[in-house]
Design a protein that fits this description.
heterodimer; A: mainly alpha; AhpD-like; 2 domains; 9 helices; 2 strands; globular; B: mainly alpha; 60% helix
């Protein structure tokens, strides 16, 4: 496995639309081989099961950054103490991924948003129609703030905050929505720039 | 700004950079909000530390000057003044950093754009393809920055503004310019992390500027704490 050539996947059929289906991810650079992982690498992987993932074994080349990234991610999305309901944290992740164009990230977090909200059709409309889809005032406010924060330079302003407040979000919830969008500007850039998505084997 | 220079500080006294850039003091309402997600607060800072004050033996061969040059460039492209000033000042404090910082400032101006833009795989999403600048370092600055860092900046611009245009060819250009696979992971993390950190700063500032009630939480609240 050369360190001086990228890995290409000429036979891969990349998904060409946003989907809630399960996708795979193929790296363009060699992940660390599983049998070369040290204690420091495992600390960076956080969950030992992630040693099976080419994505995490690639990021494990800088294990300390990976570990801090993962712990940031888990607290923003999984910490159940007050703030925004999990479904809507996942909505901010999905909207951000839709805006940046990360088909893989959007697939994962659209599934989570559907699962926790039981609004699979609305989530699908966000994927199909894009971030302008009308999902009702509360979801629209979360999507609009996430997308504004995703622009470079950012376009978030007071009106976005006021709209979130008007939909009943308190400061803890607004902070969660903004952190969810901010975090996916991190995650999207890694997934998009280090490899490509792959359609999973056709369901039978 | 010298206290903000990460290279001049032992790790344990490193200020929390997001607090520093937002202007959060202990006991502020935003401090309470951030400590409500304490792991996220802690590990956002740990990510910063891992990227700019890495623990030895540090993986890869990306120098601190290269890391700070990329950071100053990415922060400049985001046009968030506090983050841009923070990373530019840290770059200036490096050996030969003033010249690098001057070149980066010129490239921030040359690289200005509005993102995200870029292309999708051919298909139904093609109608959403959005054109925008494809950036490369200018000739004058390339002599100062060198071929390796110039390739890094071109990739940082792609990742910042048009991440969906990423390709194996873009990574091959980095390998050809002397970035190893591990170096590329570090570069990618730098740009991606800054994209997060700067947005947290922008988001928290917007939240603080638009409080729920006409009067934000009283400073007495903070003083009343032990």
């Amino acid at each position: 496995m050369s360190e001086h050539a990228v890995i290409t996947h000429p036979g891969n059929h990349e998904p060409t639309a946003f989907t809630q289906a399960q996708l795979e991810w193929l790296p363009w650079l060699p992940p660390l081989p599983e049998d070369e992982l040290t204690e420091r690498h495992y600390a960076g992987l956080v969950d030992a099961a992630r040693a099976k993932s080419p994505y995490f074994r690639l990021l494990a080349r800088d294990p300390d950054t990976l570990g801090a990234r993962t712990r940031t991610d888990k607290d923003i999305f999984y910490n159940p103490d007050a703030g925004l309901p999990r479904a809507e944290r996942e909505l901010s992740a999905t909207a951000t991924s839709r805006a940046n164009g990360c088909i893989y990230c959007a697939s994962v977090h659209a599934r989570f948003a559907s699962h926790f909200s039981h609004r699979e059709a609305d989530v699908q409309r966000l994927l199909d129609e894009g971030v302008g889809a009308d999902l009702g005032p509360r979801w629209n406010a979360i999507v609009e703030a996430s997308v504004a924060l995703t622009a470079t330079p950012t376009a978030l302003d007071g009106a976005h905050i006021e709209r979130l407040r008007a939909e009943g979000l308190d400061d803890f919830a607004i902070s969660d929505a903004l952190h969810g969008a901010a975090f996916f500007n991190w995650a999207n850039r890694l997934m998009l720039s280090l490899g490509e998505p792959q359609q999973a084997a056709a369901a039978t | 700004m010298s206290q903000a220079n990460p290279s001049s500080l032992p790790g344990h006294t490193l200020p929390d950079v997001i607090d520093l850039l937002v202007g959060i003091e202990p006991g502020d309402h935003l401090d309470t909000l951030r400590r409500h997600r304490l792991q996220a607060r802690t590990h956002a800072q740990e990510s910063y530390r891992a990227l700019f004050v890495p623990t030895a033996p540090a993986p890869g061969a990306v120098t601190l000057a290269e890391r700070l040059a990329v950071a100053a460039f990415v922060a400049g492209l985001h046009q968030q003044p506090d983050a841009a000033a923070f990373y530019a000042a840290a770059l200036v404090a490096q050996d030969a950093g003033a010249g690098l910082a001057q070149a980066i400032a010129a490239e921030v101006s040359r690289g200005a754009a509005q993102g995200p833009y870029g292309h999708y795989p051919a298909g139904p999403l093609s109608r959403e393809n959005t054109a925008g600048p494809v950036y490369a370092v200018g000739e004058a600055q390339r002599t100062v920055l060198g071929a390796r860092l110039s390739a890094g900046l071109a990739h940082a611009h792609l990742q910042t503004f048009r991440p969906r245009d990423a390709s194996p060819e873009a990574l091959q250009a980095l390998l050809d310019a002397g970035w190893s696979a591990t170096d590329i992971v570090i570069l990618s993390q730098l740009v991606a992390f800054l994209s997060f950190q700067i947005r947290v700063v922008v988001g928290l500032r917007a939240l603080a500027a638009h409080p729920a009630s006409p009067t934000p939480l009283s400073p007495r609240t903070a003083e009343a704490q032990p």
